[in-house]
Amino acid sequence: xxxxxxxxEAFGFTLxxxxxxxxxxxxxxxxxxxxxxxxxxxxxKLVCLSNxxxxxxxxxxxxxxxxxxSVPGQPGRFADEQDNIYQLGNGRQYRPRWFAVIGxxxxxxxxxxxxxxxxxxxxxxxxxxxxxxxxxxxxWSSSRNFGYGYNYQFLGNTRFTSIDxxxxxxxxxxxxxxxxxxxxxxxxxxxxGSAAGKPESLRTPNRSDGSRDSERFAEGxxxxxxxxxxxxxxxxxxxxxxxxxxxxxxxxxxxxxxxTNVQFVDGHAxxxxxxxxxxxxGDQNEVRAGNEHGSNRFFSGVSRxxxxxxxxxxxx
Length: 316
Prior knowledge:
Blueprint: H1 3-11, H2 15-65, E1 85-88, E2 91-94, H3 98-106, E3 148-150, H4 152-155, E4 157-160, E5 170-172, E6 186-190, E7 260-264, E8 269-272, H5 274-277
Antiparallel strand pairs: 1-2, 3-6, 4-5, 6-7, 7-8
Helix pairs in contact: 2-3
């Protein structure tokens, strides 16, 4: 018998042995894949928590540098277009939203190239520091259809009221940072935007270009603005075009294993259910709207359940 034949007989596999080996590998993969998926989910959640902690530091920097002012959600629109352009850390931006203001204060810019153009207000890509993008929703990256929402109704709403007489009056600004119960007040959270008030079956994918088409049902639409649990017909909800339409409200997105990552004003972050935050959720996963639903204790800034300032009267 030749040496090559001896080698094949010593080291060859029968068909049955090969099939058994494949079956064992399949079983091992079946056992490992859920663990790998769980590990990836945990990693994404921790990265997201780290992101939100850094934005809270930026919030505190802004307050320290601006006479104890809390960061506004987004400046109101003035008639003179030059009044709508603000200086950020690396350029000038048209009506910058809260995260861009925070980034400028802390030294991590939200935009690689800010824009003074009104046409770019909603669609400019958030392509600067990675802290502004949740790894579970990293394509939610336009200025408006965004992955993180800010507690603007209580921390600083510089939109204008609807009072008569043509007087420009902010809904809720200024807000002093030192007046806020920082350890129990939400600063920001993973946001679902104006789709939150709709049954889950009617929601559509995020429109990352910032466009308005079907935005009311799009996940992340107006996601930069986080509405508190309890609102009323006079609350200034996330989409200013939908004032009085409570179904267009925003709320946190429970994208981390059925929970949402929440950042508090004092800098600590935790993962919570919507119910723990005070939201009331319906049978079709819609977040209920109306002043009879939910509690604003974690949003009000005073650790009590009160409604946000009204668009009719401004800060109460």
